[in-house]
């Protein structure tokens, strides 16, 4: 029994290692190549590559068996809800449930599912808002927020409302900082610390709006949607 537990633990560590390798190293390198080598003009290609890489950590979880259709469908449904919610709240640019829904998916189904939901949400919703060089940055930003929410859940931290609020603040600030990087680079392909500081200061009102939005939607939606996802997960034995 002990060997089985150790094997399961080692597999979990291996999956986490490959996930971090893909999400924090491979994808940023792809984005950098897109900015530097292609002058941010091949953003559609870069977005497709990121979408493909986002799928890998999710499917790595099924190294011992093939994923069932319903396990894939639940992520498709959550990404669709997330993308649709962004379109519905289009009149309020910084006030959207995308981060909350992405985080809730990560909480219920793990960090890999959270990343996949966040990145696909950005790609799909931009079919309405318009694809552009900002799309890869949105994909990795929302994806990372879903991944981090899933990691925090492994330590049973996301059940606490105080932690949810702290996460919401962190998520709003991180998303703004990530998009500020794109804003600076989009000028002429160069990144300077001085420009970045100016961009951060200019984005403070939007950052505050992101934070308020995250707190509102995460506290509002976490329990009702989270409970439904947990029931689905237990009933069908999804993504164990």
Automatic annotation (TrEMBL):
Key word Transmembrane present: yes
Keyword Nuclease among record annotations: no
Organism field: Senegalia massiliensis
One GO location term (cellular component): membrane
Residue ranges crossing the lipid bilayer per the database entry: 16-37, 43-60, 72-89, 134-152, 164-186, 198-221
Extent of the signal sequence: none
Name of a matching Pfam family: ECF-ribofla_trS
Name under which the protein is recorded: ECF transporter S component
Record's keyword terms, sorted: Membrane, Transmembrane, Transmembrane helix
Taxonomic superkingdom: Bacteria
